[in-house]
Design brief:
Blueprint: E1 2-5, E2 16-21, H1 26-29, H2 32-36, E3 41-43, E4 49-52, E5 56-61, H3 70-74, H4 89-97
Parallel strand pairs: 1-4, 2-5
Antiparallel strand pairs: 3-4
C-alpha cells in the first residue's frame, strides 16, 4: 500500500512543515533513511509506504542523536542550539508577535 503525505499546499509555493519533537527511537530511526534520501518515501515496518511531496518539509527537534545511525545523520542537516544560548524567551516573543501565543506567561 502506498499513500502520500502533504500532497496539497494551501497556495502555490507554500510548504507544509511537519515538526516532530521527541527522542529518536533506534527501532524506527533506520526507517527514516528512505524518507531522508531522494526517494522521500517512508517505509513502515509492515511494508506500507508513505511518499512525501515536494511541498512537505520535516523538522526533528531532539535533545540527543545518540540513537541515530551515521546513515541517518549524514542525510540530515543539523543545527545545534544550546539552551544557555537560546533559552525560552525568544520562542515566547516570536509566538506572541505572530499572535500564536495561547496564554500569557
Amino acid at each position: 500500500m502506498e499513500s502520500s503525505c502533504c500532497s496539497v499546499a494551501d497556495a502555490e509555493g507554500e510548504h507544509t512543515w511537519l515538526v516532530l519533537d521527541g527522542p529518536i527511537d533506534p527501532v524506527w530511526a533506520e526507517h527514516l533513511n528512505t524518507l531522508l534520501d531522494t526517494s522521500r518515501t517512508l517505509t513502515l515496518p509492515n511494508g506500507d509506504r508513505i511518499a512525501l511531496t515536494d511541498n512537505c518539509k520535516i523538522v526533528f527537534e531532539v535533545d540527543s542523536i545518540d540513537n541515530a545511525s551515521p546513515a541517518t545523520v549524514s542525510r540530515s542537516g543539523m543545527i545545534y542550539l544550546s539552551s544557555d544560548t537560546l533559552g525560552w524567551q525568544p520562542v515566547v516573543e516570536v509566538s506572541s508577535k505572530r499572535g500564536k501565543l495561547v496564554s500569557k506567561m
